[in-house]
């Protein structure tokens, strides 16, 4: 591609940021649609976030994604945030319009998009979410808005699950269970979602006894590296439908792209470069 004086700059703020696949995916998307823009990684430590935000405005960077550990920290710098970012207390997408910064959080809706893309109807399904961190919060909120009937949050630290459930209770029917007790209740759920990092490493423990997974279930792991975690491998062997985290990565990015450009993101182009990038 040709970078000229007119080329617009987008990027991602993160610390670390070297592992991020967003530059690959967003650059491919700009190119596919013939948009004169680049998307680059910015390694921004939490101490330097204030200077980075000033720099973004000073240099007229048009938009950024924000990742760990800055999603919450970026909020005070934003002039306006959407309802989801407000509920989350965290933003993953910032749009700069004439020096005013607008914040969004596309993680949860991106997750739901990735289920829809796989033909999963979430309305009125019973969902078990494992984990009670930021990813679980985003996913639970988006699922409730999409018509999910009932969510149970399972977590190692039950207090964290309860605190998250309390925040969600005004929106839908949300309960909790200790991770230690989920084996006996698992067959009550249609959709199981792992939002923890357990499964990223080869020697990670099992979250529960995966032999309890049934063929009628949809089992989702937001991990995409490895491409198929132990959880998904066993689920597949039980005849369950399995979905990894690549779709969530793509669709949170696709929503950011739409916020910045007003255009539908070329999702298949993004998937293709990510699949190559993950090889
Ligand atoms: P994220 O923003 O990606 O959700 P996070 O906020 O750090 O990350 O949340 C991590 C989640 O993974 C938590 O629910 C955590 O459980 P605890 O609340 O008990 O810490 C869960 N988690 C991490 N390592 C785990 C492990 N080895 N076993 C079970 N749960 C684990």
UniProtKB/TrEMBL annotation:
Pathway(s): Aromatic compound metabolism; 3,4-dihydroxybenzoate biosynthesis; 3-dehydroquinate from D-quinate (NAD(+) route); Metabolic intermediate biosynthesis; chorismate biosynthesis; chorismate from D-erythrose 4-phosphate and phosphoenolpyruvate: step 4/7
Molecular function per GO: NADP binding; shikimate 3-dehydrogenase (NADP+) activity
Residues holding shikimate: 20-22, 67, 92, 107, 224, 252
Gene Ontology annotations of biological process type: amino acid biosynthetic process; aromatic amino acid family biosynthetic process; chorismate biosynthetic process; shikimate metabolic process
Binding annotation for NADP(+): 131-135, 155-160, 222, 245
Kinase keyword on record: no
Shikimate dehydrogenase substrate binding N-terminal domain ranges (all copies): 12-94
Residue ranges of domain Quinate/shikimate 5-dehydrogenase/glutamyl-tRNA reductase in the record: 121-197
One Pfam family per UniProt: Shikimate_dh_N
Domain SDH C-terminal intervals: 245-275
Entry's Gene Ontology cellular component terms: cytosol
InterPro entries linked: Aminoacid_DH-like_N_sf (IPR046346), NAD(P)-bd_dom_sf (IPR036291), SDH_C (IPR041121), Shikimate_DH (IPR011342), Shikimate_DH-bd_N (IPR013708), Shikimate_DH_fam (IPR022893), Shikm_DH/Glu-tRNA_Rdtase (IPR006151)
Entry's EC annotation: 1.1.1.25
Catalytic activity: shikimate + NADP(+) = 3-dehydroshikimate + NADPH + H(+)
Alphabetized UniProt keyword annotations: Amino-acid biosynthesis, Aromatic amino acid biosynthesis, NADP, Oxidoreductase
Enzyme class: oxidoreductase
Catalytic residue positions: 71 (proton acceptor)
Self-association state and partner proteins as the record states: Homodimer.
Job of this protein: Involved in the biosynthesis of the chorismate, which leads to the biosynthesis of aromatic amino acids. Catalyzes the reversible NADPH linked reduction of 3-dehydroshikimate (DHSA) to yield shikimate (SA).
Family statement: Belongs to the shikimate dehydrogenase family.
PANTHER family: BIFUNCTIONAL 3-DEHYDROQUINATE DEHYDRATASE_SHIKIMATE DEHYDROGENASE, CHLOROPLASTIC (PTHR21089:SF1), SHIKIMATE DEHYDROGENASE (PTHR21089)
The protein's name in its UniProt record: Shikimate dehydrogenase (NADP(+))
Native species: Desulfurobacterium atlanticum
């Amino acid at each position: 591609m040709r970078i000229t004086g007119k080329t617009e700059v987008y990027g991602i703020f993160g610390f670390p940021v070297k592992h991020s696949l967003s530059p690959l995916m967003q650059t491919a998307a700009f190119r596919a649609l013939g948009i004169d823009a680049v998307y680059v990684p910015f390694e921004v430590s939490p101490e330097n976030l204030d200077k980075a935000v000033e720099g973004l405005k000073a240099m007229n960077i048009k938009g950024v994604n924000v990742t760990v550990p800055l999603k919450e920290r970026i909020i005070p710098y934003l002039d306006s945030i959407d309802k989801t970012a407000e509920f989350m207390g965290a933003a993953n997408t910032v749009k700069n319009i004439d020096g005013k910064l607008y914040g969004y959080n596309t993680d949860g809706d991106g997750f739901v998009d990735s289920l829809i893309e796989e033909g999963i109807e979430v309305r009125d399904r019973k969902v078990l979410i494992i984990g009670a961190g930021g990813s679980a919060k985003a996913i639970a909120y988006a699922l409730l808005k999409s018509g999910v009937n009932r969510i149970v949050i399972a977590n190692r630290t039950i207090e964290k699950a309860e605190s998250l459930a309390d925040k969600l209770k005004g929106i839908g029917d949300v309960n909790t269970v200790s991770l230690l007790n989920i084996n006996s209740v698992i067959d009550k759920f249609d959709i199981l979602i792992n939002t923890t990092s357990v499964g990223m490493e080869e020697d990670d423990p099992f979250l529960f006894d995966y032999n309890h997974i049934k063929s009628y279930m949809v089992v989702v792991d937001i991990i995409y590296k490895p491409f198929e975690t132990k959880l998904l491998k066993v689920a597949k062997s039980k005849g369950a439908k399995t979905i990894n985290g690549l779709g969530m990565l793509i669709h949170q990015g696709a929503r950011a792209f739409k916020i910045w450009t007003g255009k539908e993101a070329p999702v298949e182009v993004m998937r293709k470069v990510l699949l190559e990038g993950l090889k």
